[in-house]
Design goal:
single chain; four-stranded antiparallel sheet; 10% strand; elongated
């Protein structure tokens, strides 16, 4: 174990168990015992699959299994444990050749080991003598049979395969065929002898009069080979070595092989073309899909036992990480005052994706960067390593598409009021300091919420919600290095420069279909924001909506749309389109949308989606703050939204009795009532791609659902009806769900009606939900 001293330059190795004196930190002992003994004591042929992602510990588990086979493979249960690293022979055309050669070599070695042991000690036990006798006779016959297979020479008449030393592992199938031709001068005869050797091996394996050792073959890192080679090896093992007294243990990432198999057969048989040509033939499509599904469980036809390497329990993973930090000599650098060991270890586990190999890689990366920074800067503080972990954690969340963490970083740098006021990061750090006496996470969050600034309630709520859902990060931030990281922008930038990899944290998603509609924003709305607002957010156009009365609801709709009731509204201004991705990112510092079209010149003109009601309110709060008191932005009330959508109409849609896919983006496979079918783009379209309503508003039907200010009340319309006429209604006073209006690209036509009501929780997000704005000068 390394010590915590200034001259320690130790790093961690990700060698598997039993290599480089590594012990079983992952606690695989019990699992290894069960699987190893299954392979050792099962006489009939068996293949065990040790499945898992890269770095999950497959090799370590298999190493422990091999150790058990070596220890218990004595007496009547004599066994040979063979280890085959498939990836080392990836240049071989047929991996079965080096595999059989390796098995033959290890049988010979095991026989020599027992012979040497007996020659040095006459008093060895009966178990050792029995094992030697089995190896001497049965082991030799299996060894010779395997070599015969390799040489392609028939065993009929003589078993005396020339023992010219160990066969070269690098022999290829082409070399073998050439050898056969040299012996027989006839390619067909050579192939006949080659397969005859297989038959002889099979006969020997089934001969119960000859005691043979159990051959347990561990094939590791099969997923590191090219998939085609891996599949060819599996097929060869099934064909040649699926014999009694042979057990195979495969270390593999199964999805790689099964995906290759499915793609191979789908390409080999032009089913896609046939399906396209027979789109109306449901029976043909069903048969084809069933045929392809046959290959989905390809490994199930080869592997009799599947064991997925389980994710280690929290206590096991914590113990593993604790030993790694001790081994690297950096435990005290992480566990500074105020940090609990549990929070630290869990955060490292999360950043390392709970993968043993990835955890080692992450810890090594942090240590190396910390040591370099420490050498370059004499004033490096002792807890910079922990700040690096905080930075790595946030960066990891952003890389995984957790855009709320990107917004979190953005808001830490923004001032809460005028330019010289405190930043949100500084406010959050001060608030956390006041929670040091909290005895549990929930109490700390309650204390943070009580201490919020009422002027910036939505923004601070969004920051606290992130900490509420991320307990370990919250508790690590509640420390001296955490306070500094939150409150000091320069310090955060230094940490990012030191610890972050130079990779993009955001990848755009490609979509399968191109929409060819051009934007129709040719008509300028009657009113726009003053020009001095353009430097804050470009392209935001506000349309004046006149005061008036209208009949809200529908008697032809669902129960919550009834009864129709009179509503009177004062004039207001509403945005011509839903908020776009470009506008959202300008204010929030992140784009959470699912439909980000890479390389599309108008991608930023797509509506922002995948935003919650809370996100929309933070956007409004921040935009209002940037307007410096000149304008107050918010969401439309449900009544404002329907009034603006209808634009004086009383029909189901502002387009009339029907809504076509030339008028809005929705699922045209399911039009309103019995109208003709239309297009279905299966994604959002650029705002303003369809004609506006009579008041100059775009996308009021379809594209994205739009959040409203109101709480949802199923019987709220009854209350309004009882009042006779309501003025400027704002919805129920309380509730648990907020109103959504307008329908989305994914919805049927009926859900896009002017009166249709929907809802979701304030923190709900979906790739068909966005919002638009209203403002008061």
């Amino acid at each position: 174990m390394a010590t915590n001293n200034e001259n320690n330059f130790t790093l961690l190795s990700d060698e598997p168990i039993l290599e480089s004196e590594r012990t079983d930190h992952l606690e695989f002992e019990h699992t290894a015992g069960v699987l190893a003994r299954a392979a050792l004591y099962t006489d009939s042929p068996i293949t065990i699959g040790v499945f898992g992602n890269w770095g999950s510990g497959k090799t370590s588990l298999m190493r422990l299994m091999r150790k058990i086979v070596d220890c218990e493979g004595q007496g009547d249960n004599a066994a040979v444990a063979v280890w085959f690293n498939a990836w080392q022979y990836e240049r071989e055309e047929h991996l079965i050749v080096p595999l059989i050669a390796t098995i033959a070599r290890d049988i010979k070695k095991k026989q020599e080991q027992w012979e040497k042991k007996l020659s040095l000690n006459d008093e060895v036990g009966d178990a050792a003598r029995k094992a030697f006798d089995i190896m001497k006779v049965g082991g030799k016959k299996v060894h010779d049979a395997l070599r015969s297979v390799l040489y392609g020479v028939s065993m009929k008449g003589k078993l005396g395969v020339p023992l010219l030393g160990e066969l070269e592992i690098s022999a290829s199938m082409k070399d073998m065929i050439e050898r056969y031709e040299a012996v027989t001068q006839d390619t067909l005869m050579a192939r006949s002898l080659y397969f005859d050797a297989f038959d002889q091996l099979r006969e020997l394996s089934h001969d119960k009069d000859i005691k043979k050792p159990q051959i347990v073959v561990f094939i590791d890192d099969l997923d590191r080979c090219f998939p085609e080679q891996a599949v060819r090896l599996l097929e060869s093992v099934k064909l040649v070595l699926h014999q009694p007294k042979f057990s195979f243990v495969l270390g593999i990432y199964p999805q790689i092989v099964e995906e290759f198999i499915r793609n191979k057969y789908a390409a080999q048989y032009p089913m896609a073309a046939a399906t396209a040509a027979s789109r109306d033939d449901d029976e043909l499509r069903y048969r084809m899909n069933n045929y392809l599904d046959y290959f989905n469980d390809y490994l199930g036809k080869i592997v009799q036992v599947r064991h997925y390497v389980p994710e280690r329990r929290p206590d096991q993973m914590q113990g593993y990480i604790r030993r790694l930090l001790d081994e690297a000599g950096v435990t005290s650098k992480f566990l500074v005052e105020g940090i609990s060991e549990k929070d630290l270890l869990e955060l490292i586990a999360e950043v390392g994706k709970r993968s043993p190999r990835e955890i080692v890689r992450k810890i090594n990366g942090l240590i190396v960067k910390w040591r370099i920074a420490k050498s370059e800067k004499s004033d490096a503080e002792p807890y910079d390593l922990l700040a690096g972990l905080i930075n790595e954690t946030i960066s990891d969340r952003v890389t995984k598409g957790r855009h709320e963490y990107e917004q979190f970083l953005h808001f830490l740098e923004i001032t809460t009021g005028e330019d010289d006021s405190l930043t949100y990061g500084q406010n959050l750090a001060e608030a956390l300091k006041k929670t040091q006496n909290a005895t549990y996470h929930g109490e700390r969050i309650s204390m943070l919420k009580k201490d919020m600034d009422t002027e910036n309630v939505h923004t601070m709520t969004s920051l606290i919600e992130i900490l509420e859902k991320d307990e370990h990060l919250c508790n690590v931030l509640n420390s001296r290095p955490g306070y500094k990281w939150l409150s000091n922008k320069k310090y955060r930038e230094e940490m990012r420069e030191t610890y972050e990899d130079r990779t993009s944290s955001e990848e755009a998603r490609e979509t399968n279909r191109e929409t060819k509609k051009e934007p129709l924003l040719h008509r300028e709305p009657d009113t726009q924001l003053p020009k001095d607002f353009e430097h804050i957010i470009q392209g935001l156009r506000m349309v004046p909506i006149p005061a008036g009365e209208f009949n809200m609801g529908s008697e032809d709709g669902l129960d919550d749309e009834k009864p129709i009731h009179k509503v009177k509204l004062v004039d207001f201004k509403i945005s011509a389109t839903p908020v776009t991705q470009a506008q959202y990112k300008t204010v929030m510092g992140a784009n959470p949308s699912y439909f980000k079209e890479k390389g599309h010149k108008d991608a930023t003109e797509l509506p922002v989606e995948n935003v919650s009601w809370n996100d929309a309110m933070v956007f409004c709060e921040q935009l209002t703050k940037q307007a410096k008191g000149k304008y107050r932005f918010t969401l439309p009330t449900e009544a404002q939204w329907e009034y603006a959508c209808r634009a004086g109409t009383t029909t189901p849609f502002n387009t009339g009795e029907n809504l076509t896919t030339e008028q809005a983006n929705y699922n045209g496979n399911y039009p309103y009532r019995n109208n003709p079918k239309g297009k279905y783009f299966e994604k959002t379209t650029r705002v303003g791609s369809y004609p506006p309503n009579e008041w100059g508003l775009y996308d009021m039907h379809g594209n994205v659902w739009e959040w409203c200010m109101d709480w949802y009340g199923e019987k709220y319309y009854d209350e309004c009806k009882n009042k006779g006429r309501v003025e400027n209604p704002a919805g129920p006073e309380t509730g648990s769900r907020r109103v959504l209006r307008g329908g989305g690209w994914i919805n049927y036509g009926q859900y896009c009606r002017s009166a249709y009501r929907y809802y979701d929780g304030p923190d709900g997000r979906n790739y068909s939900v966005g919002f638009r704005l209203v403002f008061v000068p």
